[in-house]
Task: inverse folding
């Protein structure tokens, strides 16, 4: 069995650290969003991607009867 060693200042990625980072990204994606979706993609129990889809609502102009 092989063993991976880390540098003295390097810490192994932990699920809690990954989740905390993902939550920060989700909070960032939500800022200023009025209409749309924020999606978190998870692989092997670890969030790997945050997607933001924003929708812009157009004001509907009323038509005049002529």
Result:
């Amino acid at each position: 069995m092989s063993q991976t060693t880390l540098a003295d200042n390097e810490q192994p990625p932990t699920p809690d650290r990954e989740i905390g980072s993902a939550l920060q990204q989700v909070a960032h994606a939500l800022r200023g969003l009025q209409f749309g979706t924020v999606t978190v993609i998870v692989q092997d129990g670890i969030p790997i991607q945050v997607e933001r889809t924003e929708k812009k609502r157009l004001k509907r102009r009323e038509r005049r009867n002529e």
Remarks:
- The chain has a mean pLDDT of 82.
- Residues 56 and 62 are 19 Å apart (CA to CA).
- The helical segments are 15-30.
